Fold:
Amino acid sequence: MIQLIDVSKSYNGKEMVVKNLNLDIEQGELVVLVGESGCGKTTTMKMINRLEEMSSGTILINGKDIKEVDPIELRRNIGYVIQRIGLFPHLTVGQNIGIVPRLTKNDPEKVAKRTIELLDMVGMQHEEYMNRFPNELSGGQQQRVGVARALANDPDIVLMDEPFSALDPITRDQLQNELLKLQEELHKTIVFVTHDIDEAIKIGDKIAVMQDGRIMQYDTPEKILKNPANQFIESFVGRDRLWKTPDMLRARDIMNKDYVRIGMNRPLAHAVELMREKNCEVLVVVSSSGNNPDYIQGMVGRRQINKDYDHDVRMKDIMRTDVVIVQPDMPLNEVLQLREKHKLRFMPVVEEGITVGIITETSILNVLTEIIPESEGF
Amino acid sequence: MIEYIALHWDDILGRTGEHVYLAFTAVALACIVGIPVGLLINRNEKLANGVIGVANVMQTVPSLAMFALLIPLVGIRDKNAILALFLYALLPIIKNTYIGIRNVDPSIIEAAKGMGMSNMQILYKVQMPLAVPVIMGGVRIATVTGIGVATIATLIGAGGLGTLIYQGIGMMNYPMMIWGAVSAALLALLTDFVLGLFEKKITSKGIAAK
Structure:
């Protein structure tokens, strides 16, 4: 676990690049520091392995103050990957990966074995690449080696400074996916710096959005997309971003919370009156007595009412009970598939028996118009 | 012309030997002093400018004047010649070492530092191997220049192939003069070639020009 406590950094004693920053990074988490250039994200990261010394504050790694650790020793236990790759051009791929383990006087045979293991791990055949020089590799392959080299000492923590931003989009996408796959196996604590919010959303367990040396919001990608803390984050993330990652849209995001409920013993006249007054097409029928008065029993729509126009009937007699109930966490695409399959117009979203909202055509449309950019010119 | 070689090959060889002794001793000493100085001054830009400035001034002293200026210090003959040639060789070696080390891509240094290499390890394992072609460039320039300047060393009694040239001029013995000059030129070319091979051997294939 890495804790940054009240950390500040200034180069000239006046202007602060990082301002009283607090950040907790849990063991095994991939945390992305994201922001525009000059926001202090790289400086923040480099203070963790003391490539930059903080001006004030404390950084603890597993409870230990890093100021009390020899910087060389500290860095050997923290993997480091940089944007411009930084492979040593005069050394072969194998030598590049093994250089630090060899410096720490590991058994050369063990180092060689580990190198082979690492190359395989990043998807490069060791027979083919071990003895090649970096200038014989493509950018993507070089950065794979860069990642393998960072893992050579089997560090608990890996710092990555825009590792994929110099790569072409296809390679970048591949490497992001492989990093995620690798992370599933290795569970390293990774601090990843990028200016690319798409990348941050894709790979981060948590994202810290930075501006002017401060963290504006630190949360999961989903929460940042859905509840941006302020105007800056909203514009930085982009309103339409949620639509680009529709798997993050769930039933609770598209439901209408202002649905109208009615007790199951209420007469039809009451229902008609309610619908007219609230201008709605559907009512959720609840038990309205007993332990769970809000417990859903069924639904009544305009069709049921027109057919059985008789003042004596009660809601429980005419309500549809074959409603398909949706969990609040169900992703948008599954909701739409259910709708299509059962030819439904209304779906109640129910959490532990209590209706929390309903999904209607209007509610879906509302969400879409809200998140689709207004650039269409209508 | 051929006759002259047939009769005087031992003389030519002897003078070549003297020449090699003067030039190589001077360049070897310049390497021993110049490379560490070039590495050291990388830590301080002001110091670097000062040292390179002094070496630059040294280079501007005409060679004959240099020999003359050193007479009060070390007298004449080979000591004087080697010292003068040494001073000439310093500049290219210091300067190229300095530039070679300084021009290593900063991102490579940052990666090395971030991986937990000490400054010494970075210098020996990263910067120096990467600077080899540039440092060797300096050594080659110094050697070729040294072999050229060493032809004047005969004027202070240090011998070398210059002896043949000056004697040849004085005695109107053209074959002698020409063989002295040609030998000096061949020596320079051959030495440069051999140094080129050496450079290739100690340069990593990963950074060799394709």
Summary: Chain A has 17 helices and 15 strands. The longest strand of chain A covers residues 16-25. The two ends of chain A are 50 Å apart (CA to CA). Residues 35 and 371 of chain A are 22 Å apart (CA to CA).
